[in-house]
Amino acid sequence: GANKPAKIIERAELIQVTAGDPATLEYTVAGTPELKPKWYKDGRPLAASKKYRISFKNNVAQLKFYSAELHDSGQYTFEISNEVGSSSCETTFTVLDRDIAPFFTKPLRNVDSIVSGSCRLDCKIAGSLPMRVSWFKDGKEIASSDKYRIAFVEGTASLEISRVDMNDAGNFTCRATNSVGSKESSGALIVQEPPSFVTKPGSRDVLPGSAVCLKSTFQGSTPLTIRWFKGDKELVSGGSCYITREALESSLELYAVKTSDSGTYTCKVSNVAGSVECSANLFVKGPATFIEKLEPSQLLKKGDATQLVCKVTGTPPIKITWFVNDREIKESNKHKMSFVESTAVLRLTDVGTEDSGEYMCEAQNEAGSDHCSSIVIVKESPYFTKEFKPVEVLKEYDVMLLAEVAGTPPFEITWFKDNTVLRSGRKYKTFIQDQLVSLQILKFVAADAGEYQCRVTNEVGSSTCSARVTLREPPSFVKKIESTSSLRGGTAAFQATLKGSLPITVTWLKDNDEVTEDDNIRMTFENNVASLYLSGIEVKHDGKYVCQAKNDAGIQRCSALLSVKGWFTKLASGLRKKCRCEPFSRPVHSPHLSLCFLQNLQQSPRRLCP
User: Fold this and answer.
1) Distances (CA, A) of 237 to 120, 202, 206, 212, 253
2) Radius of gyration over alpha carbons of the chain, in Å?
3) Domain boundary at 471, 499, 521, which?
């Protein structure tokens, strides 16, 4: 704080003393150090002398005469000063050559003390020695003892009282007596009892919304000052808080408490003798409340695993319950639950579409409950239950690719040809109904041939199927049958290699008549190779053979000759040169040959003989 000026707070205005007796002039001062005392007698600085001693200690200045003489009488001035200011006063000091009755230069004053402490009553007495000093309480003389210590030193009479209690309060008198007379000075001892608690408020655990009353009773000297605090903040009546104060009791009432009202409440009681405080803890149980809620929704794929996580606060114990579509979930291989360090977790494994729904977590404790929910949608990736197959299409015909798909709709269907997206229009018509998807290709031509692909997509996956669509080829001969010859009784075979769209029907003709199988004729068509096998060949087998291949895209033929050799063949060969019968362009085996043979036989029968 600011510096305080020097000031005299206690002094003696008039002192009389008998010549030859000791005497003391004493002043008590105050002020900010450094304090400088000065003494004057009759206006002049006091000279040093062995007759007296000057001291200044603990803010008490003394001028002590060992043995006062008549010429020591005079006007003494004391001055005290510091950097801020100064103060002075005068005392008339009279030395007489006769005895002087006792008189008090500093009378007794009223004194305050506190229970269990100690106190001192003192006064300053002047007058001729010897002098007897006595002390009285409420008129009864006090003897020196462990409780009362009586002293009279250098004009100061003192009474020290130890272990003060309320019974020590009363009126104390100091009586000074010498040969000339006696004098008394009185003062009161006021014993102040510091406050102490008779009953203290107890700590409480309560539910939100409760009313709470913290009450304390106490004792001690009034008036008492009573203050209530929450933590370090002083409380005043108002709102949901009301404080009552009476002489020796006080209450703090809290209405409709909230969790924020939890804390340490302190009652402080004080008076002039001291202060005391007591505290109680109020704990308002927190209702179970979610501080981190479930994700609003989750989209899962069939077979996935996931976990629903939320965080809850509140006063333990907290009970966690999980529900799906308002049905409580029990622990199982699919459902695993945990609640550790305020975090509630529901783990789902191998989910199916039947696990879709609204999942709710409910947290409950004694103080309240809360819940949060999440929509879980489990979808199955699309897959084909029936795929379309490779197909061959006749030119200018329409074709439809049809497939069946499963999974969770809605589906997005995309068609491709050779990796290029197809659009519905004049050429293509797409269609989806329930599980059926189709693509119709109108008036198929060679340019429409290629790899067709269908891709089905939903929110969790996709699937594709593909097949080649080709234009049906008419049959054609990669290798044609070739003419051959055989002796009578021998074997012969015709073989042709074909290509073209299956199925291909192969037919064999001989001289425009369809060849049928018998013991000597066998036909096969395997691996695109058409074969005609003849055995036990006779003249009737001689002739022109045709291989005819047919499918729904067209027909194709190729032909070759089978020549049967032997004596008849030689004869026929000679006849062929001379026979004018027409036509004779086929092998020698028909009525033409017979006619020619007969005609030539008539003209030259000898030629038949070699």
Assistant:
1) 43, 21, 21, 14, 9
2) 69
3) 471
